[in-house]
Amino acid sequence: MLIIKDLHASVGDKPILKGINLTVNAGEVHAIMGPNGSGKSTLSNVLAGRENVTVTSGSIEYLGHDLLALEVEERAREGVFLAFQYPVEIPGVGNVYLLKAALNAQRKHHGLPELDAMEFLALVKDKMKLMEMNESMLYRAVNEGFSGGEKKRNEILQMAVLEPRLAILDETDSGLDIDALKIVANGVNSLRHPERSMILVTHYQRLLDYIKPDYVHVLAGGRIVRSGGPELAHELEKQGYAWIGNETTGQEVSSGS
Amino acid sequence: MSDSTSTLEAIISQEYQHGFETSVEADALPRGLSEETVRMISAKKNEPEFLLEWRLAAFRRWLDMKPPEWASVHHPPIDYQDIIYYSAPKSQKDGPKSLDEVDPELLKTYEKLGIPLHERAILAGVAVDAVFDSVSVATTFKDKLAEKGIIFCSFSEAVQEHPELVRQYLGSVVPVQDNFYAALNSAVFSDGSFVYIPPGVRCPMELSTYFRINAKNTGQFERTLIIADRDSYVSYLEGCTAPMRDENQLHAAVVELVALENAQIKYSTVQNWYPGDKEGRGGIYNFVTKRGDCRGAHSKISWTQVETGSAITWKYPSVILRGDHSVGEFYSVALTNHRQQADTGTKMIHMGKNTRSTVISKGISAGYGQQAYRGLVRIARAAQNARNYTQCDSLLLGDRCAAHTFPYIEVKNASAKVEHEASTSRIGEDQLFFCRQRGLSMEDAVSMIVNGFCKEVFKELPMEFAVEAQKLLGVSLEGSVG
Known about the structure:
With 257 residues, chain A is an alpha/beta fold. Chain A has helices spanning 40-48, 72-77, 95-109, 117-130, 136-139, 148-162, 178-190, 206-210, 231-239, 242-245; strands at residues 2-11, 14-24, 29-33, 53-62, 65-66, 80-83, 90-94, 141-142, 166-170, 197-202, 215-220, 223-228. In chain A, a hairpin with a 2-residue loop joins strand 4 and strand 5 (65-66). Chain A is globular. Chain B has one domain. Chain B is 25% helix and 34% strand. In chain B, helix 7 packs across helix 8. The interface between A and B is medium-sized, with 32 and 26 residues.
């Protein structure tokens, strides 16, 4: 599904990622943990194609394609989905309108007929039940006036509608109370699928109590310094990131292959 | 970054779509303006004496007036002796009796513009009074409207058929000496539209005029007068395009609306005059005076405008809230791209008691576009309990454009409530990235965000025209994202 090799990337002149190696196979859920400033969000942004991040060397192969050669929207239509840490507001644009335009852009890309309003509504209402969302949210402007929890649920709703092959969830647990966290986690779990891979970027172990990862990686100083199973997350929770911070050399890790 | 800039660039720099020219022989006066010109125009139109006198009075006032200099627009001085003040397609000289008599070349022009003249008009349920340069070419649906006593015709026809109405209302909202361009228009106006809705009648269809400047070096000075008598309602739409030319053309129109007791007028404009090329060569100078008079109690006038064209727009559709409990509204989307300049806004003059006004202005600047919102809210001493709400938002695309806001508020009655909100934002990198990450192209993302920004205004437009306006905005922005 995804093979990242010796990835180096900078934001402005500042090198952030300094040699990331990671392989994610179909159906796997990988958690990427790490302290602030370790490069977690930069990694998410590189995968999604954000233009403020410059890849200086290394490669990313996605479903056999050179991911870095694709435009942001091409990646999206090929099934790369980023759930944003801070979902943006788009005043005046109905949530339902954005969702439909997004799904139809993807369908068109794959040579499928576009869904009309009725077909789309039926589909989206079904998915909304999953996220325990009120239908009225469809007709509100994208994320405008949404609470933190509503915004995150809305992200997962978009994921449920777009059914990506590779979903990157960037700090999806941040700003959620425990009830909202459970709903979001339920939504995510229901989207686990042998053909779908997920990368959970998170600061805390808490999310991983609800979404069980297959692998946990610890990112520090722009490198993956440790990889392991779910137990690694518990260890981190107990000992804190300082424990990792002492390790200066990043381990070459290729997990899950 | 550079990638998105170039795509935005491509979106903004899309070409003007209506820049074709129609070859028809024209019957035109020589260039220049004098008392003689005014007399010749009046004579060509076989006007009654009162109108000639009115024109001449306006002309004399104009001679002593100076063009306004307070607007934030810049252009070389206009040589008013270098303009042709009257041009009519020759084949139309005797006036068409029906659509069949209209020059096929003209009809083709309208077809290219997508105006539903023939059966298409019937399908669309729109009655169109098409103004081609200076004479009205064809008026559809006149008979159907006549059944209800509605008068919808060219201004020239109204002068011949209903001189008493013209005499009573012409210049009663925008007096000849109101401003430089209004005085000029009053002296030399050649045609326009006239609407009268009798008491108690709700006009059953949208009335629409499509203006088009075709002949070279021709100023277009049209005059529109709409009167809604007691308890009546009318919705009127005006759309505009002009061919592409290197030199600038002047368009100085005057629109007067009169709403009597309990009457309502909704006036919507989609203005897409030629904006000039990317370097700012050519394009229309759109110096227009539009004003509505809520003359009766409980009357209402709404202006909705989508301004995407013209090299320079100078326009302040206003409402005089004379009747008690009258309501004025102004909803505006103005877009300036490339080197376009717009100084636009509104005036809400509260004179009656319990009058209310709402102003929603959305400005979008791209390229080197310069835009100013200029709005006056005046609460007169007698206007007890007047209310105004103004919201004025600007959206910037790229870093070479500018938006300015000049609100003027004059309150002479302590019971007034006047609110003004303003915001300026840039189209967000975050918003664009988010939309693209969901699979939308850059163009679609920009168009969606901009349309979202304008939503409050678009929802005020009649349905078909809202769709048209959205498309127009997309087209005008093509190549603008950066």
